[in-house]
Write a structure and sequence with these properties.
The strands form 2 sheets. The chain has a 6-stranded mixed beta sheet, sandwiched between helices. Strands 4-6-8-9 form a 4-stranded mixed beta sheet. It folds into 2 domains: about 200 residues, 2-enoyl-CoA Hydratase, Chain A, domain 1, CATH 3.90.226.10; about 45 residues, Lyase 2-enoyl-coa Hydratase, Chain  A, domain 2 (Orthogonal Bundle). The protein contains 11 helices and 10 strands. The longest helix is centred in the N-terminal third of the chain and has 16 residues. The protein is an alpha/beta fold and about 260 residues long. The protein is globular, with a radius of gyration of 19 Å. Helix content is about 40%, strand content about 15%.
Length: about 260
């Protein structure tokens, strides 16, 4: 019997929506070398697919989104009991700037999101959480690296970020994550994927080039000076000129109908 893939990659709604599912439920979807590689390649695949406009990532089962790095495998590798497989180097949770991923992404957090699981959700644009989910950054408990945390203060107040990171033996509830502004919405677990698909479908009625422009403007503008940000935004938005969609948008408004964007 063939082994189950550690990451499921499905295309829905005429290929416009990609749903990625971390598929190691027996290990709480912990990120081993194979899953980490698959995640990195999946983000690149989504980025390069002109047909796909928005992605959702979640975990198999209802217990864990991802419990983070597979520390059992990490221990075996660091003690020389297991030789790591050499693969093309990719990041399991890349920043948008790192790989030029300006399409919108949604994390459907269906359970525990700890350490690397938190990191995957952190790199998404929208975070939806099941009411029973628990979240945390536990790297300081195990002396594990967490360089990806440098972007966390652009998602929440610094004091909240420090509490989460420096007191890493504590998990927070989905509701608390919502209260500090990190989770966009908390829903009952049985409705989580329906909610995520609703968010994804809303994107399909919006102008894809403009959506991607504005994501990039907001991300890059968060660390540019106001004048630099304004200049960058004006330059980037020149890519709207001459597009069919730039005619379709105002035309649909004047005709009182939904626009039919083609990203052309």
């Amino acid at each position: 019997m063939a082994e189950k893939p550690v990451l499921l990659y499905e295309k829905k709604l005429d290929g416009r929506v990609v749903v990625m599912t971390m598929n190691r439920p027996d290990a709480m979807n912990a990120i081993n070398g194979e899953l980490g590689q698959a995640l990195g390649e999946a983000w690149e695949r989504f980025r390069d697919d002109d047909e796909a406009w928005v992605a959702i990532i979640t975990g198999a089962g209802d217990k864990a989104f991802s419990a983070g790095a597979d520390l059992k495998e990490t221990t075996l590798i660091r003690t020389g009991q297991l030789k790591p497989v050499r693969r093309r180097r990719v990041s399991a949770f890349p920043m948008a700037e790192e790989i030029g991923l300006w399409k919108p992404t949604i994390a459907a957090i269906n359970g525990f999101a700890i350490a690397g699981g938190w990191a995957i959700a952190q790199q998404c644009d929208i975070r939806l959480a099941a009411a029973h989910a628990e979240l945390g950054v536990s790297e300081v408990r195990w002396n594990m690296p967490a360089s990806w945390l440098h972007t966390l203060p652009r998602q929440m107040l610094l004091g909240h970020a420090l509490e989460l990171v420096l007191w890493g033996d504590r998990r927070i509830t989905a509701q608390r994550a919502y209260e500090i502004g990190w989770v966009n919405r908390v829903v009952p677990g049985e409705h989580l994927m329906d909610e995520a698909m609703e968010w994804a479908e809303r994107i399909l009625y919006l102008a894809p080039r403009d959506v991607r422009n504005l994501k990039e403007i907001l991300y890059r503008g968060s660390y540019m000076s106001p004048m630099e940000g304004a200049a960058f935004a004006r330059a980037l938005e020149q890519n709207l000129a001459g597009m069919e969609d730039s005619i379709e948008g105002p035309k649909a408004f004047s005709e009182k109908r939904k626009p039919r964007f083609k990203n052309k």
